From TrEMBL:
Keywords: FAD, Flavoprotein, Monooxygenase, NADP, Oxidoreductase. InterPro entries: FAD-bind_Monooxygenase_sf, FAD/NAD-bd_sf, Flavin_mOase-like. Belongs to the FAD-binding monooxygenase family. Its cofactor is FAD. This is Predicted flavoprotein CzcO associated with the cation diffusion facilitator CzcD. One of its GO terms (molecular function) is N,N-dimethylaniline monooxygenase activity. The keyword Flavoprotein applies. It holds the Pfam family FMO-like. The lineage of its organism: Bacteria, Bacillati, Actinomycetota, Actinomycetes, Kitasatosporales. It comes from Streptacidiphilus jiangxiensis. Transmembrane segments: none annotated.
Length: 499
């Protein structure tokens, strides 16, 4: 840590400038708080929507729902917007709410330590040191790419990159390209690059359920109406939200109701793939919704093209330019695109956050991620997570969950100031009670009973990622901070005085 003369002292430090970080910054300004910084490792805002610029990148949540309620955009060009439009929207949010002066680009956080003596977070970045009373970690679960350690990969003579680190300087035209994985990014990448590559080989361990994507251009008349009669856009957002709220019951309580959706997905597969052998490879053998349901009108037709091979197996090893699948088949390629997701249940940032007693967040979570209301964690006073444990969604907009957590953040700061304490720390009983209830409700969901292994689950098979309820339920649970769930830490003592 640097000397006190080189440390910038602020009330709140926010890590990350995606939806979560920018949302937190906006909410602080709305609360009249201006003593804060946003520490961003990149050179611009946007988070995952800055980093993921692969061909075909777009959102699978309708645009009017995948945006802040306090910053509606009447000019979305499509019902499901692409990455460039979403990134541009976040840039406009930063400007509209006067956040530029708070942003610190190329400030990757290399360590954050709770100092029990000063009751503050001491934060190291690549460009300086900060001290904050409250630390908001808004790095999100889709920020650090996960690349499998495949034997022989280091000796591959061609080009290798992850979907979130796309090499736009590499020309895929005419190349033999392998795409590893069949998740949300792969089903967008495959149709985008299939027409230009010489041969595309898709390595598929598990076929996804794919539904039709009801995407279209938003007409000029619609945009005019949204701009001049804002209530119409608000009504559309409400309708989109309500439809998804009604779907939750099938995912979390009555998975059997999803059979109708399975029939629609199978019909979509039959329309896109006429070859029965290929169709059999692409047919899931687990319950609809167990893994993330994907939306595309172009994925299946792309796989049916003559320059595409679907390998119904994972990648086992690499021998020079030859990729060996787990079924023993060999495939010569010039480039490998890993569409293998992110470190979701083993967040790398957790290794760099050190709480009371010198324990890292990763060590605290060695048995699985856990926290109170998805936002605070025992032993880490005045640390608030945006998109923390069990706050993810399988069918709706994460922006709704983020805004609920911003309500909690705002009330946390109010209660902290009013209490006379310098910090709040979750009681062990409150955190245990919350997580026991979440896991009890999780047991009957399709994510636990659907017969698949998904990225929602951690290494022990527990779902520490998703929220087993509606967004309205989560908003009620995070509307206010209950001080009975916290120990109060005062400046004169190092230990909590209110159990």
């Amino acid at each position: 840590m640097g000397s006190s003369a080189t440390v910038q002292h602020v009330k709140v430090a926010i890590i990350g400038s995606g939806f979560g970080g920018l949302g937190a910054a906006v909410r602080l300004r709305q609360e009249g708080e201006t003593d804060f910084v946003v520490l961003e490792r990149g050179d611009s805002v946007g988070g995952t929507w800055r980093d993921n610029s692969y061909p075909g990148c777009a959102c699978d949540v309708p645009s009017h729902l995948y945006s802040f309620s306090f910053a509606p955009n009447p000019d979305w060009p499509r019902t499901f917007s692409g990455q460039p439009e979403i990134r541009a929207y976040l840039e406009r949010v930063a400007d509209r709410f006067d956040l530029r002066g708070h942003l610190r680009f190329r400030h990757m956080v290399t360590g954050a330590r709770w100092d029990e003596g000063t009751a503050r977070w001491e934060i190291d970045t690549e460009q300086g040191h900060y001290s904050a009373q409250v630390l908001v970690a808004a790095t999100g679960p889709l920020s650090d790419p996960s690349i499998p350690d495949v034997p022989g990969i280091a000796d591959f003579p061609g080009e290798i990159f992850h979907s979130a680190q796309w090499n736009h300087d590499y020309d895929l035209a005419g190349k033999r390209v392998a795409v590893i994985g069949t998740g949300a990014s792969a089903i967008q990448i495959v149709p985008a690059i299939q027409p230009k590559v010489g041969r595309l080989t898709l390595f598929q361990r598990t076929p996804p359920w794919v539904m039709s994507r009801m995407d279209r251009n938003v007409t000029a008349a619609e945009r005019f109406l949204y701009r001049h009669v804002p209530a119409t856009q608000k009504a559309l957002r409400g309708a989109l939200w309500l439809v998804r709220e009604y779907q939750v019951g099938a995912f979390v309580k009555r998975p059997g109701l999803l059979r109708a959706a399975e029939a629609l997905a199978l019909a979509n597969l039959k329309r896109g793939v006429k070859d029965p052998v290929l169709r059999a490879k692409l047919t899931p053998d687990y319950r609809f919704g167990c893994k993330r349901v994907l939306l595309s009108n172009t994925y299946y037709p792309a796989l049916a093209q003559p320059n595409v091979d679907v390998v119904a197996a994972g990648l086992r090893e690499v021998k020079g330019s030859t990729l060996v699948a787990s079924d023993g088949t060999e495939h010569e390629v010039d480039a490998i695109v890993f569409s293998t997701g992110f470190h979701v249940t083993d967040l790398p940032v957790a290794d760099h956050i050190v709480g009371a007693g010198g324990r890292t967040l990763a060590e605290e979570w060695v048995e699985g991620m856990a926290g109170l209301r998805g936002t605070t964690v025992r032993g880490f006073p005045n640390l608030l997570l945006v998109i923390g444990p069990n706050t993810g969604l399988g069918n709706s907009s994460m922006v709704l969950m983020i805004e609920s957590q911003l309500n909690y953040l705002a009330d946390y700061l109010r209660k902290l100031d009013a209490s006379g304490a310098v910090a709040l720390d979750v009681t062990a009983s409150a955190q245990l009670r919350w997580n026991d209830e979440v896991q009890r409700r999780m047991a009957r969901t399709v994510w636990s009973t659907g017969g698949c292994r998904s990225w929602y689950l951690d290494a022990k098979g527990n779902n520490t990622t998703l929220w087993p309820g509606t967004t309205a339920h989560f908003r009620r649970e995070t509307r206010t901070v209950d001080l009975h769930e916290y120990d109060l830490i005062h400046a004169s003592v190092a230990q909590p005085v209110n159990a």
